[in-house]
Every structure is written in structure tokens, then in C-alpha cells.
């Protein structure tokens, strides 16, 4: 059983690495394909925000590559420079995806609300759980292992909740990009490639965590039985 769990974790980890390559590859490929609208990522984001009544949400450039994100605390859409200034299909796709998160925030999308509420607990749990698990297995302390598993479960739950948040943001982005005329029908394939690869990274990360959690639970169960 343990060998099988290790294999599943290894496969999921391999999927995660492959997904990262897919994200970079698709972003680079579609960064060289200009969008027919000629808009920059910043212009597309600003236009969508304004048409959703989000006039008070600024769009800011940020250093790096693929560092794009929506900050729910400051309520700011931050776009990496290649996306902010870029006029490609990749740039518009990523920019509109981040605006999708801002729209989720505005409409109180349930899974996003849940994710925000979970974050303080998960931030603590993810930092403490590895030490509890390591110490528990080294000292053969079942109480530490059990507590570590509970905290690690919170981190896994957070990753699972993240999946519908990301998929929903991409779905909103695709729909709005077409509706607003940012892309033509023939350009939807590029948008799907860029956002689909990004979504795969979250799926892979969640799988790795789930298999790790199952492995810890199995080890805990085996240790409990050996002490009976």
C-alpha cells in the first residue's frame, strides 16, 4: 500500500512539473500572437473593471514574469510587465483572468469567500504541520502525528477550494473577452490553451497534497496498530 501511495505521489509530482512547463510554453507561444483588438493587458483589465462597475480597483504593473495576481486585501489587480504592456492573446487572457477574481470578490462568489475565511487558519497550519509530522514520526508520538494530520488537512482543503475559484475566474474571463470583443472566435483556442495550462497547475498541486495526506493517514494508522 505504501509503495502504491508513493507511486501516486510521484506521478502527481511529475504532473505538477509538466504543468509548469505547459504554462510557460503556452504563455510564451501565445505571447507572440497579437490579439486582433490591439489592446494591452492593462487596457483590457481596465475596460472590464469599469464595465463591471469596479472603478475603484486599480490595475498596476508588477515586476517579474507570471507574477500576475489579484490582491483581495488592497483590492488591486497586479499584472506582470509582459501582461500589462503586452498586446498578445496570452497577455489579454491572463489580465482578464485576474479581473475575474475581482468580479468574484464583488459578487461574493461563495468559494472565494470561503477561501478568504480559511486563509488565516491555513497560513498557520501549513507552517506548523510539517514540524509536527516530522517530530511525531521521529519520536513515535501519535498525538503529534494526529495533530499534524489535522493541520495538514486544512491546507489540503484550501487547495481543493482554490480549484473552483480558479476555474470560475477563467470561465468569466473567456466569456467576457468574447462578449466585449477583445478577441475573435478564431482566437478562443489560444485563450483556452493559456488558461487551461494554468488551471492544470492547481489540479496537479492539489493531487500531490491529497496523496501526501492519504500517505500520512496510512502511516498514522499503521503506527497505531503496531502499538496495540
Number of domains: 1
The rounded Rg comes to 21 Å
Kindly state the percentage of residues in helix. over 70%
The gross shape turns out to be elongated
Mean pLDDT: 91
Q: Tell me the series of helices and strands, N- to C-terminal.
A: HHEEEHHHHH
Strand order within the widest sheet? 1-3-2
Beta-strand percent range: 5-15%
Organism: Effusibacillus dendaii
Pfam family, one: Zn_peptidase_2
GO molecular function, one term: peptidase activity
Protein name: Putative membrane protease YugP
Description:
The protein is mainly alpha-helical. The protein has one domain (2-226). The protein has 7 helices and 3 strands, in the order H-H-E-E-E-H-H-H-H-H. A 3-stranded mixed beta sheet has the order 1-3-2. Strand 2 and strand 3 form a beta hairpin. The chain is elongated and about 65 Å long. The relative contact order is 0.16.
Give the topology, please.
Layout: H1 2-30, H2 41-51, E1 59-62, E2 69-71, E3 76-80, H3 81-85, H4 89-107, H5 110-139, H6 142-179, H7 188-226
Parallel strand pairs: 1-3
Antiparallel strand pairs: 2-3
Helix pairs in contact: 1-7, 2-4, 4-6, 4-7, 5-6, 6-7
Question: What labels describe this entry?
Answer:
228 residues; elongated; Zn_peptidase_2; transmembrane
Short structural summary:
This is Putative membrane protease YugP. 75% of the residues lie in helices and 5% in strands.
Amino acid at each position: 500500500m505504501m509503495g502504491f501511495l508513493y507511486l501516486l505521489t510521484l506521478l502527481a509530482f511529475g504532473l505538477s512539473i509538466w504543468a509548469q512547463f505547459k504554462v510557460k510554453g503556452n504563455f510564451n507561444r501565445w505571447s507572440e500572437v497579437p490579439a486582433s483588438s490591439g489592446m494591452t493587458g492593462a487596457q483590457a483589465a481596465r475596460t472590464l473593471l469599469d464595465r463591471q462597475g469596479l472603478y475603484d480597483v486599480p490595475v498596476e504593473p508588477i515586476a517579474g514574469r507570471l507574477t500576475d495576481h489579484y490582491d483581495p486585501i488592497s483590492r488591486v489587480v497586479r499584472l506582470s510587465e509582459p501582461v500589462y504592456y503586452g498586446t498578445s492573446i496570452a497577455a489579454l487572457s491572463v489580465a482578464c483572468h485576474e479581473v475575474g477574481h475581482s468580479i468574484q470578490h464583488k459578487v461574493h462568489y461563495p468559494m472565494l469567500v470561503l477561501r478568504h475565511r480559511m486563509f488565516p487558519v491555513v497560513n498557520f497550519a501549513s507552517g506548523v504541520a510539517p514540524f509536527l509530522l516530522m517530530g511525531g514520526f521521529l519520536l513515535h508520538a501519535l498525538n503529534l502525528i494526529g495533530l499534524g494530520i489535522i493541520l495538514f488537512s486544512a491546507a489540503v482543503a484550501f487547495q481543493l477550494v482554490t480549484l473552483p475559484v480558479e476555474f470560475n475566474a477563467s470561465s468569466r474571463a473567456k466569456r467576457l473577452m468574447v462578449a466585449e470583443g477583445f478577441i475573435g472566435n478564431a482566437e478562443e483556442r489560444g485563450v483556452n490553451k493559456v488558461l487551461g495550462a494554468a488551471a492544470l497547475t492547481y489540479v496537479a498541486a492539489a493531487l500531490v497534497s491529497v496523496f501526501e495526506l492519504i500517505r500520512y493517514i496510512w502511516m498514522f494508522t499503521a503506527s497505531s496498530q503496531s502499538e496495540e
